[in-house]
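Exam revision sheet. Question 4 asks you to relate a sequence to its structure. Input first:
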Amino acid sequence: MLLQLKISNYALISESLIDFKDGLTVITCETGAGKSILMGALSLVTGARADSSVIKQGEKKTVVEAQFDLSNYNLKTFFDDNDLDYEDITTIRREILDTGKSRAFINDTPVALNQLKELGNFLIDIHSQHKTLEIFGESFQTGVLDAFAKNKDLLSEYQGLYESYKKTKSEVAALEKQAAESKKESEYLHFRYDELEKAKLQEGEQKEMEDELDILTHNEDIKIAVSTSSMLIISAEEGTVLQKLKEAENELQKISPYYPKAQELFSRIQSVYIELDDIGRELDTLNENTEYSPERLDFVNSRLTTIYNLEKKFSVASVEELITQRDDLKKRLDLIDNSDERIAEKKKELKEVVKKLSSSAEKITLSRKNALDGLKNEVESLISTLGIPDGKFDVEFSGTADFLPNGRDGIKFMFSANKNVPLSDLSKTASGGELSRLMLCLKYILSRSTKLPTIIFDEIDTGISGDVAGKTGQMFKKIAGFMQVICITHLPQVAAKGNHHFKVFKHEEDGIIRSDIKELTENERVNEIAGMLSGEKVSAAALENAKELLQI
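Answer key, structure tokens:
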């Protein structure tokens, strides 16, 4: 609900603060007094675009600020989704700078214009004669019928299934596309996989092969070095290292009994002897096992050539990366091989969703058809009270092959304003005045069953008068029993129905024409309505008539 509107330096308005209340608020004004300024200011805080031309002459910026009570709107999710602080009493501010830039704030947090507009759609519905064109939209017409039929729960169930249907259908299409594309490259993938699989690659084998290649390539040098080293250490010939150590060991052993130092050296030489003897035997074994094998050298060279060629071909630097690519290719090929099975499973899932969705759509269609007579009778009764006594209304159904976001029905409002004139498509048969009155009836029906935002009727009562004007005002008041209604009107019969009455007026201040708005007292209201009845010169009869309209 709109609680307050503060306007600063907007067009002809310097400063204006308006406190709104629930129920029906009427706003009256003379032509050109600044009603459009008020509507423009309200449009700004709900996300309308603006430029610096709205800034009051001589000022640097325009500021429009509105307070709303959101406690009954269930809008916390919007605030969470947009990372905004939620407050039951929320303030929206819009600033237009003389540089042409615009800034928007929700509870003092800067927001983008599209965020402001999204929130504004939940808060205010500005309904003018131009906006009446909304009545031609199938989504609006379907919404009216669903609201009358109380289809909220059925639609909630349907829409959950509809989202699942769209998701599953999209998944089927994606799988089929993926399968078609994959099967095109299946032969190429198999070729690459087979090449890697045939190589029988093992982790770490490249390093092992490269080390072995070094040994095989230098086999002769290795054989000579190992053989010579073995002979120097453990050969039976005199002069070997072990032979000399044995001699030194014997000499030290002789003097050990009377020279303790010799015993220590004897033990150390003995340890060296044992170690060298072990080294010599290992060298001898290596010498015996070191054989030159041209066949093994060819095999190692061939194996490494295979590995290097694969690494180059697959743009990698190791056997481990080749193994990873081989395994990835295997997974992709398995997916391709199993794609038909996965598609069949997903199609089966889609079939189940379609079955449930079809059943849900049928329930909605049945509910709509059951509500049709009631809606038809109520609309005809309401438009009759608004001066179209012979008006006829109906809804034409047409089934759709595809599922729609709100069911499986094509909905079209049919209307005739005159006796003996057959019903036809609303867009082809109703005049502007008839459309305005029909829309008012539909808004009244919607207000009873749907939590609508504050609605502003901007002179949609133009072109009616007399008793019909009084009944129109009464309908505004009925709607205001369910929601906050602000009505801009030139009709005294409508103005008299308001719970609160504001007047937009122009006045001269310091030689400058300014616009302002004020809430009228009871006496001011009598005079205002009397003036609307009789013109500039208010007669006593007009005053009495005004009091009668106001039930004073």
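Marking note for examiners. The longest helix spans residues 319-385.
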